[in-house]
């Protein structure tokens, strides 16, 4: 399964690079044009790898091998009064230690954001947005039996859970790197495999034996990217959601911070931090953090 995930990410990278090449060709080909094409595309792919080996090392240590691959890609359209911004983010990572019976995930996500806007004033647009989130591979809960042997139980998988948010609203867009979208009538759908539902307990907010949960509420999303100093870029992505139909005071929070410190053309130091609060999934904050030196390819 793992090799297929990595293969899929590499294929996506190739497709995105090809799309960028075609866009560039259309704009710089032999046929000259007085206007710039409405489509722009840019992104990067990164690969982090770590391996440690210990042999008679008295200070202690455990042999391990770890890797993480990530893609962050933007495809945007702008012409006359119309704008359409699309962001694709995908990452997957694993670690295997000598004493563990299983390779374990260190990262796993697939997210698509899309906002369509029709200008109504200088910086404001009528908008329609879509946000989709899920994971690539199965997730497990780990424990040990009476013989202290490690065991695991499958708890999540691809499209279980998956989240889809869609709705109309208004968009503030001063520039490509500063955007705010407000949607007061957002539909949120949570998809799960009904075989995972738990007796006498909701599974990501979905009732036992069901595979879908519907919510209607208010969504606010913000995007801000800037350079703090030369070769150091911060990307902030924030999503807030309140469900009108049930406990509107419990606001779902999803905040992502991506820091890229460029060493040279192909090497960067990457820090990805994400925190999520969703009481249907977990009674508290979920935190994900990935840090390392990466081989980086921009396209």
CATH level 3 topology:
Outer membrane phospholipase (ompla), Chain C
Strand content: over 45%
CATH architecture identity: Beta Barrel
CATH level 1 class label: Mainly Beta
What string, H for helix and E for strand, traces the elements in order?
HEEEEEEEEEEEEEE
Q: What's the Cα radius of gyration? A: 22 Å
Question: Total number of helical segments?
Answer: 1
Largest beta sheet, briefly? Answer: 12 strands, antiparallel, barrel
Given helix and strand content, the structural type is: mainly beta
Going across the biggest sheet, name each strand in turn: 1-2-3-4-5-8-9-10-11-12-13-14
**Number of spatially distinct domains:** 1
Termini separation comes to: 27 Å
In which range does the helix fraction lie?
Answer: under 10%
Instruction: Write down the overall mean pLDDT.
Output: 87
Form type: flat
**E-strand count:** 14
**Uncertain spans:** 1-35
What does this structure look like?
- The structure is a single chain.
- The chain is mainly beta and 299 residues long.
- It has one helix at 2-28, and strands at residues 39-52, 64-79, 82-97, 104-119, 124-134, 139-144, 150-156, 162-175, 178-191, 212-229, 232-243, 252-262, 267-277, 285-298.
- It has one domain (2-298): Beta Barrel (Outer membrane phospholipase (ompla), Chain C), CATH 2.40.230.
- The protein is built from 1 helix and 14 strands, in the order H-E-E-E-E-E-E-E-E-E-E-E-E-E-E.
- The two termini are 27 Å apart.
- Residues 1-35 have low confidence and may be disordered.
């Amino acid at each position: 399964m793992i090799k297929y995930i990595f293969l899929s990410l590499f294929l996506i990278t190739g497709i995105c690079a090809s799309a960028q090449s075609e866009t560039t060709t259309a704009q710089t080909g032999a046929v000259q044009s007085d206007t710039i094409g409405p489509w722009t595309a840019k992104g990067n792919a990164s690969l982090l790898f770590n391996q440690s080996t210990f042999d008679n090392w008295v200070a202690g240590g455990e042999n391990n091998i770890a890797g993480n691959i990530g893609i962050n890609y933007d495809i945007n359209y702008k012409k006359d009064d119309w704008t359409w911004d699309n962001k694709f983010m995908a990452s997957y990572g694993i670690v295997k230690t000598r004493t563990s019976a299983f390779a374990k995930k260190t990262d796993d996500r697939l997210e698509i954001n899309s906002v369509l806007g029709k200008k109504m004033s200088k910086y404001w647009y009528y908008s329609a947005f879509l946000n989709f989130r899920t994971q690539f591979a199965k997730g497990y809960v780990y424990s040990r039996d009476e013989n202290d042997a490690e065991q695991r139980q499958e708890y999540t998988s691809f499209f279980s859970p998956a989240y889809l948010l869609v709705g109309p609203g208004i968009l503030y867009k001063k520039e490509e790197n500063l955007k705010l979208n407000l949607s007061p009538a957002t539909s949120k759908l949570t998809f799960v495999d009904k075989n995972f539902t738990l007796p006498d307990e909701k599974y990501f907010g979905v009732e036992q034996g069901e595979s879908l949960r519907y919510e209607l509420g208010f969504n606010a999303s913000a995007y801000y990217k800037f350079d703090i100093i030369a070769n150091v870029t911060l990307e902030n992505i924030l999503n807030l959601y309140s469900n009108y139909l049930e406990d509107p005071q419990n606001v779902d929070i999803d905040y992502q911070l991506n820091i890229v410190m460029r060493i040279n053309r192909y090497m960067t130091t990457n820090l990805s931090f994400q925190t999520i609060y969703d009481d249907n999934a977990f009674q508290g904050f979920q935190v994900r953090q990935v840090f390392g030196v990466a081989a980086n390819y921009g396209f």
